[in-house]
């Protein structure tokens, strides 16, 4: 349901997803069960890891990562302000303090390892690397930094499922990786997420915390295991549903084809937008084969009125978006942590000028051409 001819995102669901959901409903088992386990196995195989833990959302994945690492009051976590607010919220909700770092620049919207290093104190316990738009942060530098200071490295892979990079498979380089399967993500389940961890003990802690820290799961009891159980930690209900995981399995199978189509669209965008004066396309210096291309981000020239620009696209029935307002300038974070403008100059500059254009597997060449045409008409380079 959209008022746009070309929306920012269009879901790609078909008969296979419908049949997968129908099979779950026929089975009578709706909460995390055999379909969830199978989805976990397939996702782990795609990443090349031993196992992973499916959860109810990307936010749940991040929250469980923070809980499993034991972060709490008195601890600090360095993370980019340029991200969806959930990353910082999960840190704050555990009583730890989010310490925001700048991004590298308009050409690279991931956390700047040098600025992250400047934010480390004796209270720092972890660094969060968010792979913006599905493009790898500098994990080599960040892992080196984390190791030098004895910190955990959390990878926020909400935009980057099953994405290889020069640093390795995203989500498997750091101590713990968190994925999102929200309705607009490359693997879309409506809601859902996944957690991977290199340390088996850490991974098992995540698995138990997602289900109230019960010592015996419902699956084990159903299979004839002990009927009683203990609770030896404070856990949550972050289990996914079988319905969501059934959709996730189908989406995962379709991911290689979907990613190829995204790359085709990005290639066309890069070629056709290259002549616009003052435009910066983040990550355009990287080969199009790299990255998950979850977002098609652009940074407008200084002095451009972004709202006017978006209004012109809206009038042409082309949707655009902003990803994201900087977290450190939200009211809750300004009031709670004494933050404000001027503390992250690079982030504040690029977030004031960032714009996202439509990008999804079904976006064809003709639609890209129309979007580029409307962008060119709306263009207002600085005088």
Automatic annotation (TrEMBL):
Pfam families: DegT_DnrJ_EryC1 (PF01041). One of its GO terms (molecular function) is transaminase activity. The keyword 4Fe-4S does not apply. Keywords: Aminotransferase, Pyridoxal phosphate, Transferase. The keyword DNA repair does not apply. PANTHER family: DTDP-4-AMINO-4,6-DIDEOXYGALACTOSE TRANSAMINASE, TRANSAMINASE. Belongs to the DegT/DnrJ/EryC1 family. L-glutamine:2-deoxy-scyllo-inosose/scyllo-inosose aminotransferase subfamily. This is DegT/DnrJ/EryC1/StrS aminotransferase family protein. It comes from Streptomyces niphimycinicus.
């Amino acid at each position: 349901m959209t008022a746009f001819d070309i929306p920012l995102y269009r879901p790609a669901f078909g008969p296979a997803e419908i049949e997968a959901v129908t099979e779950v409903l026929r089975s009578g088992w709706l909460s995390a069960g055999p379909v969830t386990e199978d989805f976990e196995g397939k996702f782990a195989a795609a990443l090349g890891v031993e196992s992973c833990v499916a959860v109810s959302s990307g936010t749940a994945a991040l929250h469980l990562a923070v809980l499993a690492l034991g972060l709490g009051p008195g601890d600090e976590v360095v993370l980019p302000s340029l991200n969806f607010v959930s990353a910082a919220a999960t840190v704050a909700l555990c009583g730890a303090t989010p310490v925001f770092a700048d991004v590298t620049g308009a050409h690279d919207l991931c956390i700047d390892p040098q600025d992250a290093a400047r934010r480390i104190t004796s209270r720092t316990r972890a660094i969060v690397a968010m792979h913006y738009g599905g493009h790898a942060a500098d994990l080599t530098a960040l892992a080196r930094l984390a190791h030098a200071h004895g910190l955990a490295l959390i990878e926020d892979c909400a935009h980057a499922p099953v994405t290889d990079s020069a640093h390795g498979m995203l989500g498997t380089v750091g101590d713990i990786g968190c994925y999102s399967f929200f309705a607009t993500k490359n693997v879309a389940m409506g809601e859902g997420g996944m957690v991977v961890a290199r340390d088996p003990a850490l991974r098992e802690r995540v698995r138990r915390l997602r289900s109230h820290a019960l010592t015996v799961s419902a699956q084990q009891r159903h299979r004839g295991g002990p009927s009683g159980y203990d609770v030896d930690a404070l856990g949550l209900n972050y289990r996914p549903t079988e319905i969501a995981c059934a959709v996730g399995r189908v989406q995962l199978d379709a991911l290689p084809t979907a990613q190829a189509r995204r790359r085709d669209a990005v290639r066309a965008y890069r070629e056709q937008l290259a002549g616009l004066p003052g435009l910066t396309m983040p990550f355009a210096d990287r080969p199009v084969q790299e990255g998950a291309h979850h977002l098609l981000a652009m940074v407008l020239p200084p002095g451009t009125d972004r709202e006017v620009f978006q209004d012109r696209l809206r009038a042409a029935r082309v949707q655009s978006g902003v990803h994201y307002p900087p977290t450190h300038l939200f009211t809750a974070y300004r009031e709670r942590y004494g933050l404000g403008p001027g503390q992250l100059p690079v982030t504040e500059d690029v977030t004031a000028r960032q714009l996202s254009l439509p990008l999804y597997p079904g976006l064809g060449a003709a639609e890209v051409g129309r979007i580029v045409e409307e962008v060119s008409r709306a263009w207002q380079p600085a005088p």
